[in-house]
Amino acid sequence: MESGPAIFAGAAFTLFGGALLLWTTVRAMHREPVAYGVAPGTAVALTGLFGAASLVLGVWCFGRL
Length: 65
Hints:
This protein is mainly α. The protein has helices at about 5-30, 40-65. Helix 1 (about 5-30) runs antiparallel to helix 2. It is elongated and about 40 Å long.
């Protein structure tokens, strides 16, 4: 993998994953809905899973440098 695209992809995935986890945590702590029309536990679990997966993918992209 070339370094330019790997840096861009790693930064994008890491920023998205971190922001998603932060947003989900703040919404859950304030007892506000994370996703409308979805059970709160399901919404927190799925957004947490996708946020963590994005962070892992970003770290993997940085590891490929």
